[in-house]
Amino acid sequence: LSPSTGEPIATIANASASDVDMAVRAARDCFNGDWSDGDNVQSRSEVLLRMASGLESRLEEFAQLETADCGKPIVEARADIEMCVGALRYYAGLAPGYFGTDELETADPDFPCSILKEARGVVGMVTPWNYPLMQAVFKVAPALAAGCTMVLKPAPWASLTCVKFGEVAAESGLAPGALNVITGGPPGGDAGRLLVEHPDLDVLSFTGSGPTGSALLHASADQLRPTSLELGGKGSIIVFDAENLEATVDWIMCGIFLCTGQVCSANSRLLVHEDCQEAVLKLIQKKTREIRVGDPFLESTQMGPVISDVQQQRVMDAFGTAQEQGCSFLTGGGQATGLDKKLQGGYFVEPTVIVNLGQEADAWDKEIFGPVGQCHDGSQPVS
């Protein structure tokens, strides 16, 4: 569904157990072939460069698709795709001089020492919906450079650019089986679980929520499988003074509202010294109310919808809890209004700043993952 309208925009497959097994076996067969050989580094680098050029030539197509799929403003989507192109070129350049054997000097020549850098194997990758293609490419590019092969499972709410990226990879001459993209997951599917529990993965890489990451780590523990996790957070900005008030608040706005606040490293918690709190909050209030919320395809739009009706309701529930706990809203605190008629079914939330938080306020401690900032008086102790 389009987050902007709530209307269907595409149909994706729900990968079955046999689909997942086929993808993993294809990755294993490719890894056992020439792709992972240390002598094949230059060839891998050249493929990555072709992938970068292929993606760059279709940058606007991918940006438009990303905006349709996850609702981020088109300006942000273009920047994301540009970063993907840059990442592919970076790892293409890194690969030729990085892999191989490094000889180390030892005190005793009878005990030679060397470090061998080689591909780890078949990697399972599970990526989130806030930066769909960028999070995928940031995993895929270094793994391909190293000679690994992989099965990529993007989030079911935003899979379209990852599927399309598979086409770019194939057109660029990537070895069959090196990159396999499967789709699906809850509701109505189980592709993610089937992948992370597959016994023939050598490595698992996951970006997403803490609870899901914990479950995946348990699944990997049973197999003693190396696993990397990039999980949610609750970042903070601390303001001791506001000598340059405009610049300070601009960074605060970016930290809270970029990508509609759906960022694991969002600086949603704000600690402001009492000496400058009034001025800082006054300007934050003004700038927050000026954020242009609406159609993400418009160049002038600064903030789009959250990803789904489920996520929108989670944010609304957080607002309700905040009010029950005695907090108040400097701005926002509800669903966005005044939108075009075509956007009435979309999942829009007002840019919001919560103040008057008590010591135990959930809004201060729990990740909301929406366009919501929280401000504490710097004179009060916080945990």
Short précis:
With 383 residues, this protein is α/β, with parallel strands linked by helices.
How would you describe this protein?
By secondary structure, this protein is α/β, with parallel strands linked by helices. The protein is built from twelve helices and twelve strands. It has helices at 17-31, 41-57, 59-70, 74-98, 132-146, 160-171, 191-196, 210-221, 245-257, 277-289, 309-324, 362-365, and strands at residues 100-104, 113-117, 122-126, 149-153, 179-181, 203-208, 227-231, 236-239, 269-272, 328-331, 352-355, 372-377. A five-stranded parallel sheet has the order 5-4-3-6-7, sandwiched between helices. The protein has a five-stranded mixed sheet with strand order 8-9-12-11-10, with helices on both faces. α6 (160-171) links the parallel β4 and β5. α2 runs antiparallel to α4. The longest helix has 25 residues, at 74-98. The chain is globular, with a radius of gyration of 23 Å. The two termini are 39 Å apart.
